[in-house]
TrEMBL record:
Transmembrane segments: none annotated. Gene3D superfamilies: 3.30.465.10, 3.40.462.20. Residues 1-23 form the signal peptide. Its cofactor is FAD. This is FAD-binding PCMH-type domain-containing protein. Belongs to the oxygen-dependent FAD-linked oxidoreductase family. It comes from Podila minutissima. Keywords: FAD, Flavoprotein, Oxidoreductase, Signal. One of its GO terms (molecular function) is FAD binding.
């Protein structure tokens, strides 16, 4: 697709006349160039523009108008005003892991506001509240929390995911059943809103934003530059396990797993991986000793039967975090995740165990993978526990779920060109699998899906992601972003 530079400039000029009387330059680029200090700007003529435009997922190769790297809240504010005056869509970027490439705009022609310079970190040892800049990634955040008093925050396993998108869309990981999802642990945020105003959102200030950002905050309501998050001290011994079962026992094991959550210890979190190699692996983190961990999984094993193999390790919390980060190195501070690849991820959230049809569809697809995949698997997270008891209401609506499933299909060798190699059979397999799962979803239950696994193929996705929160989200959107400056293909709509 060609970059329509001239026409964008004309649109910008028209939008400026129509919407503002402020003396901002009509050209967004020159407006951004006027922002001084430690910020920097990447434009299509910069030598590393292509590299800067890429997302973590090589499926996408969107062409933003520019990528701006602010250094201060005032820089963010000024950039929002520049883009807004030119009616250019704004996409904040933290870790760049959006499944649909939305931090690159999800379409051509956006302004990316990349928070890589917002990597500040501190922790208050009296309140155990961590202050975390919006550009930090999870691995480095875990490393900093550990180095500053052996703390943790409940969040995901992938070390290169950014705190920004992750915390604003929920955030589920290996201590969620003990401490809840990450968004429910946000105490307050600094947000630069769509008008460019710098605000604090908390339980007592800008409460509408505080409510909306926690769950529906990714890209729709402004740029969160800093999070204040409740941190915790894990016990001195933490146990991690992998338990391997054969896929042929899928029905018994899926039933046992879903039932287990209701009575399982909240010190235990589990995630199950089912893949096309015929394996079902249950991964467990238990906040306590190996002896106690074994007791905690005993009810599960009673229902499933003995695993064919297991690997149980007692260590510190940070050892478990490193283990389940699946890095090429083992350095959370500088994580080396797998090389960028092509992936399609989707999700469904369930309020009850899978029905027979659903289990059979999973087995059918996993035993007949398409040609060309490098990996295809399901991650089944065990929900419940503290996830169901948030301290306050927010736009995260999946409390009360039993399991959350992520469907992942990956293909393409590392190093292939972005946007070039689209394995047709892989994508068709992924979509057909998902369509069958949607059709089998228990009748009378509104479909729920996890917004951090955002997917443009999901019909009525706004309802599935936000459920009963949607009407209020639209009202807040209309009030804080009436011109819809923070827009991408699945942003919160005005109406
Ligand atoms: C390999 C991989 C592993 C994952 N593992 C887990 C997991 O274990 N648990 C889990 O819950 N999820 C997991 N996820 C999903 C992850 O939580 C989401 O993809 C999340 O949105 C990524 O955040 P990000 O900042 O890296 O992405 P980005 O692409 O930077 O952002 C995602 C969205 O949020 C917006 N956004 C980002 N930062 C801000 C900000 N500061 N202010 C306002 N809007 C912002 C972006 O515009 C975009 O729309 C995983 C994803 C991947 C690709
Ligand atoms: C692109 O260039 C800028 C300015 O020289 C630099 O600061 C930035 O790190 C580069 N980005 C990448 C992804 O290499």
């Amino acid at each position: 697709m060609h970059f329509q530079w001239t026409s964008l400039a004309l649109v910008a000029a028209a939008a400026l006349q129509a919407t503002t009387s402020q003396a901002l330059p009509t050209n967004m680029i020159s407006c951004l160039q006027a922002i001084k200090g430690k910020s920097y700007l990447i434009t299509p003529s910069s030598s590393n523009y292509t590299k800067e435009s890429l997302t973590e997922n090589y499926l996408f190769n969107y062409k933003p108008q520019a990528i701006f790297h602010p250094a201060t809240n005032n820089d963010v504010s000024a950039a929002i005003k520049c883009a807004s005056a030119a009616n250019v869509a704004i996409a904040p970027r933290s870790g760049g892991h959006s499944f649909e490439g939305y931090s690159a705009g999800g379409q051509d022609g956006s302004l990316i506001i990349d928070l890589n310079q917002f990597n500040q970190f501190s922790i208050d040892k009296k309140t155990n509240i961590a202050t975390i800049g919006g550009g930090n990634r999870l691995g480095p955040t875990y490393a900093k929390l550990w180095a500053n008093g052996q703390y943790l925050i409940p969040a995901g396993t992938c070390p290169t995911v950014g705190i920004g998108g992750h915390a604003l869309g929920g955030g589920v990981g290996m201590t969620s059943r003990k401490y809840g999802v990450l968004s429910d642990n946000i105490v307050s945020m600094t947000v630069v809103d769509p008008s460019g105003a710098i605000k604090t959102a908390s339980a007592t200030e800008n409460t509408d934003l505080y409510w909306a950002l926690r769950g529906a905050g990714g890209g729709s309501f402004g740029v969160v530059t800093e999070f204040r998050i409740q941190a915790y001290k894990p016990p001195s011994k933490v146990t991690s396990m992998t338990l391997d079962f054969p896929l042929s026992k899928y029905s018994t094991i899926l039933d046992a797993y879903a039932a287990f959550g209701a009575t399982a210890s909240e010190d235990l979190m589990a995630e199950m991986n089912l893949d096309t190699s015929g394996n079902m692996q249950v991964q467990v983190v238990y906040l306590g000793s190996k002896a106690d961990a074994n007791k905690a999984v005993a009810p599960l094993l009673k229902a499933t039967g003995k695993p064919k193999s297991s690997d149980i390790r007692e260590g510190k919390w940070i050892d478990a975090a490193v283990r389940f980060a699946w890095m090429q190195n083992s350095d959370l501070a500088n994580p080396k995740a797998g090389d960028s690849n092509y992936a399609k991820g989707r999700s469904l959230v369930y309020r009850q165990a899978l029905n027979k049809k659903e289990k059979d569809i999973i087995y059918k697809y996993l035993t007949a993978p398409p040609k060309g995949i490098s990996a295809a698997y399901l991650i089944v997270d065990l929900w419940g526990g503290k996830i169901n008891r948030p301290a306050s209401e927010s736009a995260f609506v999946h409390h009360g779920a039993v399991i959350g499933i992520e469907f992942v299909t990956e293909w393409g060798d590392a190093g292939t060109k972005p946007g070039k190699k689209a394995c047709g059979p892989c994508q068709t397999w992924s979509l057909n699998f998902y369509k069958e799962m949607l059709a089998a979803y228990t009748k009378g239950q509104p479909i729920q899906a996890y917004q951090n696994y955002i997917d443009k193929d999901l019909p009525n996705s706004m309802d599935a992601y936000y459920g009963k929160a949607l009407p209020r989200l639209k009202t807040i959107k209309k009030s804080v972003d009436p011109n819809n400056v923070f827009r991408f293909p699945q942003s919160i709509p005005l109406n």
